[in-house]
Amino acid sequence: MFKSYDQVVEFCSENEIAMIDFKMIDLLGRWRHLSIPTGRFSLDTLKYGIGFDGSNYGFAPIEKSDMVFIPDITTTVYDPFTDVPTLSMIGDVFVIAEPDNYRFDQDPRNIALKAEEYMQATGIADEMRIGPEYEFHVFDHVSYECSPQKTGFSIDAEQAIWNSGENEFQNLGYKIPLKGGYHIAPPQDILYDLRARMCILMEENNIPVKYHHHEVGGPGQVEIEVEFGGMREMADKTMLAKYLIKNLAFQEGKTATFMPKPLYGEAGNGMHVHMHLFKNGSPIFYDENGYSSLSKEALHFIGGLLKHAPAVLAFTNPSTNSYKRLVPGYEAPVSVCFATSNRSAVIRIPAYAKAPEHKRFEFRSSDATCNPYLAFSAILMAGMDGIMNKIDPTAEGFGPYDINLYNLPAEEQAKIKGLPNSLDEALDALEKDHGFLLAGGVFPKRLIEIWIENKRKEARKVNEIPHPLEFELYYDL
User: Fold this and answer.
1) How far apart are CA 70 and CA 89, in angstroms?
2) How confident is the model at residue 62 (pLDDT cuts 50, 70, 90)?
């Protein structure tokens, strides 16, 4: 939004901005924030930053927790959800040092910057453009409890088929059948106006929207797909999009979640990531004579991404709930392979993207519980490893499989490598295979260690808590 300190000050004066809010990404992918009165914003803020406790962000041990964040004024937006007029901008984390502070190597936004710099240093490409698809649910009610004597959750959505027999309140019918919501029209699609307002809000905040629609899941599953942008830019915009979507839903008396699998038996929420590489403005993924018009560089990128996919999933699918979505029968990929127009493959090449500048593929397994800076960087590093080492996806046994993998006989399916079945399996893969992430000093080894340690604690906690289904299965034994 702004290129200079003076532009910020001028805008604040002309628009009576009272507060400036700074948002920082923590290790797990949540925004934290701190605000100051506009009069306290100075050139020193941009030079020396503002101190904070990094240990509470999951980054540093407590004895070395004093850090500063320095605002990036190019990320500034006007916050539409505050009563007090507020500007918001992202802060980059720096380590306090003499004579000058330096970027914190574990800051996810810094890792994304280093991944882009590494790509450019190889000479292969100077830009990775990505386009995420945001799938999420909009519910009318969510409650949950996890205590020693009571564990469970309750979800409701007005349009859900389970409300077809509601008699206590007025019921107008028009419910959506199980897994019957894809592109459903009004009056069943009662979320159109809310989605449209979300899209307008995103457009107003420099997140161009490609389209929006109701998704497969009947109880309030929707999708907003956005236009392409640079890798780190789209990580910024992913965080902003989630902020705008969740807060607008909340403002209108609903609740939005990007949780991969909130409902058993219904489609889950992914965040498919479309990607292609450019050099000097020219696409390098196109070759009219290649498979599906893909160049050798594109196929090698696919080879690297698929070879490292189990480890990459530790960052792109970093929740225990992620693996409840990655099961057969719900349009979620479970097989490590690539194909054209095949939604059952981890990597799908859209057949409709024919022009050289549009030729690309999508990574379909990822979901929005990820930290987008780490997830997008891991995808790029795996692909770059494939290009630099000329990893042939066909020679590795990854396809192409231009068939419905779910319909293959069991003995044929067994020949195709599968994605991890749990977060623990993905973390095991990351422990064994992370050298590609360390190339160029992009991912610090210590961050990978901290990530694995924290995520194993999450998985262990979930695994230790009795599940309601266990009472149905075992209580009477």
Assistant:
1) 10
2) low
In the residue annotation, 53 being an active-site residue is answered as: yes
- Residue 294 backbone zone (phi > 0: left; psi -120 to 50: alpha; other: beta): beta
* Selected catalytic residue, list 362, 367, 385, 434: 362
Q: Is the pLDDT of residue 292 over 60?
A: yes
pLDDT at 98 over 80: yes
Q: Is 325 annotated in the active site?
A: no
Q: Is 168 among the residues known to form the active site?
A: no
Percent of the chain that is helix, strand, coil (3-state, to 5): 35, 25, 40
pLDDT band at 63 (very low <50, low <70, confident <90, very high): low
223 is catalytic: yes
Average pLDDT taken over every residue of the chain: 94
Burial class (CB in 10 A: 0-12, 13-18, 19+), 193: exposed
Indicate the pTM of the whole model.
0.95
The domains of the chain, with CATH numbers, are: 8-104 (3.10.20.70), 127-474 (3.30.590.10)
Catalytic, 272? Answer: yes
Judge whether 362 counts as a catalytic residue: yes
Based on the residue annotation, tell me whether 103 is a catalytic residue of this protein.
no
Q: Flag whether pLDDT at 452 surpasses 80.
A: yes
Q: Is 40 left (phi over 0), alpha (psi -120 to 50) or beta?
A: alpha
Separation of alpha carbons 73 and 38, rounded Å: 14
Taking 70 as the threshold, does the pLDDT of residue 60 lie above it?
no
| Nearest-angstrom CA–CA distance, 273 and 180 | 24
Residue 273, CA atoms < 13 Å, CB-side half-sphere? 29
**How is residue 118 written in tokens?**
């590494």
Pairing of strands 335-340, 345-349: parallel
Amino acid letter, residue 350:
P
> Is 215 assigned a catalytic role?
yes
Tens-digit pLDDT profile for residues 251-286:
999 999 999 999 999 999 999 999 999 999 999 999
Determine which one of 129, 232, 308, 364 is catalytic: 364
Cα 223 to Cα 403: distance, rounded to the nearest angstrom? 25
